[in-house]
Write a structure and sequence with these properties.
The chain is of the alpha/beta class. The protein is about 20% helix and about 40% strand. The termini are far apart. Belongs to the janus family. Its EC number is 3.9.1.3. It holds the Pfam family Ocnus.
């Protein structure tokens, strides 16, 4: 699982994101990853891109929920909020812990706010 990056998000702006659980079929090892991009009109567009990539690597994917990320690289701030109509709200506290592994010098916050 080390070959899969914990986080792949756009470098700037406000965009949709999903929290995805990876697992080997029949295996105990699992890992959660964050994916987000402005290119996605809907949360399922992100999953439709991630799922085949992960299947090629031998993983099963499950979307645990979604929301939005506001990424301000100039001020080194990330805000996680909102929800996905299709997948429900991701556990933003889990998302923040994953983001902190990658963006170690950022101020990262979350809320249940819709905007």
């Amino acid at each position: 699982m080390a070959a899969v990056r914990d986080v792949e998000i756009d470098p700037e702006g406000t965009f949709k994101y999903i929290l995805v659980r990876l697992q080997r079929p029949g295996g105990e090892e699992r890992r959660d990853i964050v994916r987000g991009t402005k290119a996605a009109e809907f949360h399922n567009h992100i999953f439709e891109k991630v799922n085949p990539e992960m299947e090629k690597l031998g993983y099963e994917c499950k979307c645990l929920g979604g929301g939005k990320i506001d990424h301000n690289s100039k001020d080194k701030k990330i805000r996680v909020f909102g929800l996905s109509t299709g997948y429900g709200k991701a556990d933003h506290s889990v998302t923040v812990e994953i983001l902190k592994k990658v963006y170690t010098d950022y101020e990262i916050t979350w809320s249940d706010d819709k905007k």
